[in-house]
Structures are given as C-alpha cells and as structure tokens.
Amino acid sequence: MFEAYQKKMNNLFIFFDLLKMKRKIPEDFSGVIRIQNRRIRRLMKKAYKIPFYRERFDAAGVKPEDIRCADDLSKLPLLYKEELRVWMREEAKDPKYDNWYHDTTSGSSGEPLMILLSPKEKAYMMANWFRVMMVAGYNPFFGKTMSRKSAHSVSAGRDTIMQRIGILRRGFLDQYAPEEEMVRQVNEYKPDYLYMNKTELMRLCLYCKDHHCEIHQPKFYSPTGEMTDQAAYELFTSILGPGIVNSFGTAEAGAQMVKLFDSQEYVIHHDSFVVNLYDEEGNPANEGSLVVTPLYKTDLPLINYAVGDKAKAETRNGVKFITEVQGRMNDYFKYEDGRRTTFFEIAPIIAHSEDVLQIRFIQEDWHKIHIQIVQNKDMPGTREEIEERLRRDLNAKFKEPFDISFEWMDVIPPDKNGKLRMIVCKV
Description:
This protein has a 7-stranded antiparallel beta sheet, with helices on one face. Strands 4-3-5-6 form a 4-stranded parallel beta sheet. It has a 4-stranded mixed beta sheet with strand order 18-17-16-19. It has 12 helices and 19 strands. Among the domains are: 2-138 and 219-267, no CATH class; 332-425, GMP Synthetase, Chain A, domain 3, CATH 3.30.300.30. The model is unreliable at 151-157 (pLDDT under 50). With 427 residues, the chain is an alpha/beta fold.
C-alpha cells in the first residue's frame, strides 16, 4: 500500500535525488569517495539483515563492519546472473512486492532476467539517467529529449501538465518505422538530446549517409545498449555531430559510468556505484570481469554483481577510471571437441577493419560461418578484397578453420530487443 503511494510521488523523488547527485565531473574526487565509503558502510548494514546476504556474509566469514571501502568488497563472493534470477523469482512470490517494479532485461545474453526495484530505487535509477545528461551539459528540465518507443510505455504520446508548459519534455521516435519516416520525426521534433539502442541509431545514420539525407543534429545523443566501436563512433559523429555521450550501464543497476564526446575513458559515478574488476581466478585486477555494486539499491541489494562484460581500468590518486569496455563475455564460436573462440579473440580484426561498418557472425554448424556485413563505401577496397582478407585473418585466429560465406547488406536489422547480437551460434 505504501509503495503504491510512493509510485505516485515518482517525479518528486527524482527531483530530490538529482539534487543530491554529483552532476559534474569533479576535479577532486576525494569528497565523492568519502560519500561512496559512507554509502558502502550503510549498504553493508542493511544487506546483513536480509537472509540471502546474511548467508553469503557468514559463508565468507565477513561482518558488515569488515567492509568500509570499495576494495573491501573483494571479501564477499560475486553475484552471478543465475543466482540473482533464482533469488528474484523467490522474492517475487511474496505479496509485499506487488507494488514494486518488476523490470526485465532485454535478454541479449540469453533468458531475460526479472529484477525487483522498490519505487524509491526506481526513481533513483531514473534520476541517475538524468544525471548522465546533466554531466554532459544538458538541462533535462527545459530541454527536449527523444527516445525509442518502449514496449512497456503507457504514456508515449501523452504529455503531463508540466511537459505542456515546457518542463521535462520528451518525444518518442518510432524505431519500427521506415528510415525516411524516422528522419522526418527527428527533424520535426528537433530534440536537444536523442537516445536509442546503438544498432537502431546506426541504422538511421547509415540511411542518412547512403541517401545524403539531412537530419537534425542534437546537442547531445547517446547510443545505448551496446558498445560503440570506432567505426560506429565515426559514423555517428559524421551524421549527428560531436555531441556523443556514451553511458555504460545495465537494466539491473542503471547507468554506472559516462564517457563524454571524444574522451578516451569512462568516469564512474562513484557516489552511486562501486565498479571493480576481477581476473579469471576471482582476484581484484586492472583487467577482467566488470563487477558492480549499486549503492542506492538498499532494499534488495545487488552486491558484487558480475554484469557479464570485460573491461580495463586505471587508478589515479586512488580513483578508478575505466579505460576500455570490451563488451559481452558470452559471445563465442564452438568446436566439436568443446573448445571455444570468444569474440574478444577476433575483436582486433574487426576493430582494424575500417572498411566494415556492421558485422554479424552466424555459426550454422561445426564447420560453417555465415557473415552478414555492411561495407563502408568511403574506404577503398572491393568486396572481394574484404572477403579475402577477413577469411584469411579470421581463420588464422580460429582454433580450426571455418568455411566462411558472406552476405552483403545495406544495414543489419536489430534483433527484437533492439540490439544486435554479434555472434549467433546455432550449434
């Protein structure tokens, strides 16, 4: 009952949460780290009262007072997706969560995952996205945003009273419409901030590039849901301008870090998250699996959550910066003897193929790979030359050579969830 009332106060919670957030990248992070440490200690005390976490604390021989900073979180075990899936399913059976948000992931890494969020946690997550915009320089109260239509949205097309008077205005772009219609919608609405899934945004920009079509350049825009590689970055900036804002996050925890414009590194929102990296042995490292702890999520916490991506980090003056995010770890090619080749083993080949704008690998059987591919027509080289080079370089990396075929396309359409799986393994 109380949660139902809190849902009605969603916008008010968002406003007050924003006031408490760091909305600029600080020159001195010492104050932010003090906030982080204080929130870590508060989270540990609350988590220990929850049976699921008390069991994990006790099994590790750890008490809440033993964890006082980001590095201390290594004393607790990692939380993996399947563990979280089982726990969330059990918790969701309790009627006390009926008025909580039952959010789901897109399922890009397999089966969609349901996550329970209290109304206050949901408001904080939404405020945190506004914070990403504000860090870039956008004013969410008086600017206009435009995003893809959400299948779960019940308000698309209907403005509130505040929006009618020019506050928190937002429009929706029909990502299922023909590209010409999408361009018309953007040009008509003229958003200050545009954001949608990277593959969908790439489809729009490829259309503009191929048809020499003028499209409104927003002050800021974000390709979401997938990593932006160099080829995509160059395409986006050539069509939409320099205002690209890359925000890394997950549906389960929200936006954890931001990379602005031509910056080469992500800045973590240290006041709201702890982001650590662990190697294959589970030890803290500067390169390895990304592990996230949202500090605002105290009702049903996510402590040491392994999000399924790899990254590299650099620590300066005691502050961690993420210098590279490599994307999903569970994309791989399979061999009959059980061996695998991950996407990261072939990623350098793709990264240095400036004549390729989009690519998807479909493993048809143990011996055949079908490649869908989009050519960068601004670069020299024929399709035959590109095919020959990719066959040679890829088979040099694969543990066994594949019979590789190519399908040249104008654009590779996204999957139903709006994203683009790099590897589709049918074996």
